[in-house]
Amino acid sequence: MLFLTLLALETSSVSPRGQTELQARIEHAPREVAKFVERRAACNHWDGEVGSGYLDREKQIQTERAKLRCNAIDADVTTLRKKYRKDSAVLKLLDDTQDLQPW
């Protein structure tokens, strides 16, 4: 489940200790939160991709973004923040992984 997120931890600018701590926080988060973090990391990746005028590449980017429902990320994080408003660990995890990249 956390494959993409784990890849992000391996290549991020977070220290090895910080990576381990973040990985543990993600693994101990409610399942829907962990899955959201992984999805948002993937969307962050595709948001940074450009097709450079190549129609096949543009189509691939749009297809992947659609599969991941990247256009719903803002609404979904708002929903999770409401649901877990009393869980400071979840709220901090959502904040700390906002810009997470999968690779």
Describe the model.
The protein is mainly α. The protein has one domain. Helices cover 71% and strands 0% of the residues. The protein is built from 6 helices and no strands. The radius of gyration is 14 Å and the shape is globular. Residues 7-11 have low confidence and may be disordered.
* Shape estimate: globular
- The mean pLDDT is 86
**Alpha-beta content class:** mainly alpha
% residues in beta strands: under 5%
List keywords for this structure.
103 residues; mainly alpha
Write the layout of secondary structure elements.
Elements: H1 3-11, H2 16-28, H3 31-47, H4 55-68, H5 73-83, H6 88-96
Helix pairs in contact: 1-2, 1-3, 3-4, 3-5
Question: In summary, what is this structure?
Answer:
The chain has 103 residues and is mainly alpha-helical.
